[in-house]
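Thread: "does anyone have the structure for this chain?"

Original post by V.I.:
We have the sequence but no experimental structure in hand. Need at least a predicted one for the grant figures.
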Amino acid sequence: MRLSRAAVLRQAKAAALDRVRRLNCWGSHLTDISICRDLPNIEVITFSVNGISDLEPLTQCQNLSELYLRRNNIGSLNELFHLKALPRLRVLWLAENPCCGQDPHRYRMTVLRTLPGLQRLDNQAVTEEELSQALVDGVEITAPPARRDVENGWTESLESSAAGSTVEPGSQLLNCSLEETNKIQEELGMKPVPRDKYSSFSPRETDCNQKKENNVLNAILLLMKELDTEGLEIIQQAVARRLQAFQKKELQEE
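Reply from O.Q.:
Generated one for you, tokens below.
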């Protein structure tokens, strides 16, 4: 799916592309982000949980400081070449992409050697010691990836991508683990959910209805962050009516 101009303006609540500062398209089945070439003033982008594989459109985002790309279809660390010219990039979340490979240390060292200006990588602070070690253990990336090429062990295909998925969006949003929920909370600048406030269900402990309910709840919490006062008031009214209906039903059953 291609990210359109209209979708960007709608989500960012902006009148023009050059006025967009923050963009959150988490879990939107995106594969084409070429519109980013027209976002010169964007500062924070959330593209986690999509099917993105090409980062070249981000080269024009010179004001970009935070980029969230967790769980996409980025097959080669050479894609980082497109981020080298972004002078303000300080936060990158790239975990759970095929390019991360089977060697976490080599992966992290390569990213830090390529982007030494990062202050946080995959929700972990970058240290001076790591930056020094990256010069030794990291792989130097000097060119963008050749399309359709596979680098010995560094690239692997996803079993399924958002582009070819036939699963309903609601069922792809989240699993019902505390860890996954808190990853989303972190990406959105929200506080993590305390363990004692969260019930974690494993596939063996809950049925499909329970998992669906957790997915829907997390999706609603995610989307609420994008609403203004008017939107939240509408949600509040809808919730009040829903609760009244449940209370009325319970009284009738008694």
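V.I.: this helps a lot. The chain has a mean pLDDT of 78.
O.Q.: and Residues 5-137 form a domain with the Leucine-rich repeat, LRR (right-handed beta-alpha superhelix) fold (CATH 3.80.10.10).
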